[in-house]
Amino acid sequence: MPQPKHTPQAAADALIGVAPMLTRWLERLLANLEPKLTLAQYLTLRAVASGADSSAALARLAGVSGPAVSQLLSGLSDAGLVIRADLESDRRRATVTLTAHGTQVLGAVNSALQGEVSAVLCELPGPEVDALVRALPYVQAVLAGVSPPRRPVPGRPPGRPPGPHPGRPAGPHRGGPRPH
């Protein structure tokens, strides 16, 4: 078997460079369509259409937290795009399906996004388009199987350990005397 020409680090660097730009494009395109959808709503509709059958699966495929899935589904249900139904066998779980309107909206949004993005990609040589078509389903499958990293705790810079702020005296809750 021939050795790969590039390392996973090189692929990661390329993806890190492209993914934010594509995300921004998609967000702006979605905001200009009717109905207006957020990227998370769009990804949730795609996940439902693909048969994702649990909140955890929907969260992974939409790139959001578990609690956010509930809010997303409520908004999509209120917009008439999905139907949630409790499972008879387990009231804690629900099935989620697209409504006819949801199927129509997802189809129209997919067509609009494909048209816009393919118009840009037509500048690429054929072999590079073929390579993208071959590689991206694998990247999607790997990313869909892993929950995104947690967001940092609000108010605490990343990497700062818990505890009192450096240079600030500890209060009574931290074991030190209270200033008068």
- Please state how the strands of the largest beta sheet are arranged side by side: 1-2
Question: Beta-sheet strand percentage?
Answer: 5-15%
Q: Helix content range of the residues, please?
A: 40-55%
Q: Please tally the β strands and state the result.
A: 2
Helix/strand order: HHHHEEHH
Q: pLDDT under 50 segments (min length 5)?
A: none
Mean pLDDT: 85
Query: What is the H level of CATH, i.e. the homologous superfamily?
Result: Winged helix-like DNA-binding domain superfamily/Winged helix DNA-binding domain
Q: What class, by secondary structure content?
A: mainly alpha
What is the total domain count?
A: 1
Shape descriptor: globular
- Sheet with the most strands? 2 strands, antiparallel
Distance between the termini: 74 Å
CATH arch. level architecture: Orthogonal Bundle
- Tally of alpha and pi helices: 6
CATH class: Mainly Alpha
Looking at the structure, the CATH topology is: Arc Repressor Mutant, subunit A
Rg is 22 Å
Question: What does this 3D model show about the protein?
Answer:
With 180 residues, the protein is mostly helical. 54% of the residues lie in helices and 6% in strands. The chain has helices at 8-31, 39-49, 55-62, 66-78, 100-121, 126-144; strands at 82-86, 94-98. Strands 1-2 form a two-stranded antiparallel sheet.
